[in-house]
Amino acid sequence: MRRSSNLGLWVILTVMLFVVTLAGFAGLVIYEYDGEKDSVEYYVTTKASSDGEELTEVSRIMSLCLKDTGDCGVFLIEDGFASEWKEDEDGNIIIADGEEEILLERSLQGYTYTGNLNGSDMEIELEKADKKPECFSEHPELTFGIKYGKQDTSSLCNYMQDGQYLIDGSRIYGKYFIDGKCTFSCGTINEDGEEITVEDAKTFETGGQAKFLVKEGKHIYYLWAPADGSTESIRRVNTETGETETLREGDVDYVQLRFGKIYFADAKFRFCVMDTDGDNEEVVLDKEVYMPYVIDKGWIIYQDDGDGEKLHLTNPASGYDRAVTGERTYSWTITGKTLYYTSTGDKEDEGKHKCRLHRMSLNELKTAESVKDMNIEVSEKHMGDSFEINSKSIYGGDGTHEALDAWNTYANKLYENGGQETYLLYLTDKYEVRGKINQIGNFTEITIRNIKTEKEGVI
Description:
With 459 residues, this protein is mostly beta strands. 8% of the residues lie in helices and 50% in strands. The chain is built from five helices and 39 strands. The strands form nine sheets. Strands 3, 4, 5, 6, 7, 8, 9, 10, 11 and 12 form a ten-stranded antiparallel beta sheet that branches. A four-stranded antiparallel beta sheet has the order 13-14-15-16, with no helix packed on it. Strands 17-18-19-20 form a four-stranded antiparallel beta sheet, with no helix packed on it.
């Protein structure tokens, strides 16, 4: 965080840090640090002089972490802060502070800075590090930075809806009602006629529901919840052979496959991780959490039951943890670098069906010392607690929608009419999957709709 009276100068330095690509080369390469691959580059000072005199101890003068998301961490002397980076047409890093600009000029070895720091004329040479600098291991918050594309947002939104469906090419996996029974099946989407049809249904499991569907290679990983209320399990199915395999027995929730590992909440709602074959189970967060999601390698956002159900951001390996929202939070998602979430604010008596949509830039986490210091926007109208987002629109839990740039004035029928006839189960830029609900809250029909052509049909 920025803690120095020389803030302006240091911010300038950060921006210089920002531009990190060789001339003619666009984007960062994936390098390996500490045995893990990531789209990040680290730079450290290898040579420096002050007022023309060469310095002998230079290791802590300046260190940089540059991510392909445009995020940047800077350590200068004994202080560090997080910011963003960009580059000019010559491949130099630019850091701006108000109307001022300072450059880190591209060199054969890395970057060079020439300018005044703390009243001294400095020349600093930085080279790419062969390992993560210790300062960034000690302060992982300076390396945080994500930018979600439409597939990332779609995966997160559908996870928030329990991952009940998954479309992969022309195949749709999920809940099918066959012969009066709830099954986990798949079928082929056919849009040749006036209506969409789902054909060639193949059943994997009967007598329960598969949730949190994630496809990796030829397997789909999922939580299996038997209809008779018996013990749940984490399973996977080979989509080519139809063979199912149980990876873990025991009641679970919030199953996800992220960065080659299976994450889940156990029966005590502790957040855990295991290998994709079910081995090497470990507890990641040893407390009661809800809606936990691994948003980036090593980084988790979760609802903290012990802190009034506020959202928290944590890096368990380092122990870093901070509140992201200041009140009980319901659904949430990320698009680009923006976090959207629903909350009733401080009016908890209104209930979760009378929420307002909130949004904030994740960059607020870099500069704000606490939630009260963050710039959080709040919608003018009410909505229910559930929502999803694709690249163009925001959808309420009932499937009503509005353009994303009109998020501030969106209100769904769930709130306006006091009831819900359909429920949005799955959303991408191309398709919607909805369930029709009867008066006692049971699904009577599942439909799929092509958003562009407006064709739809029953699954």
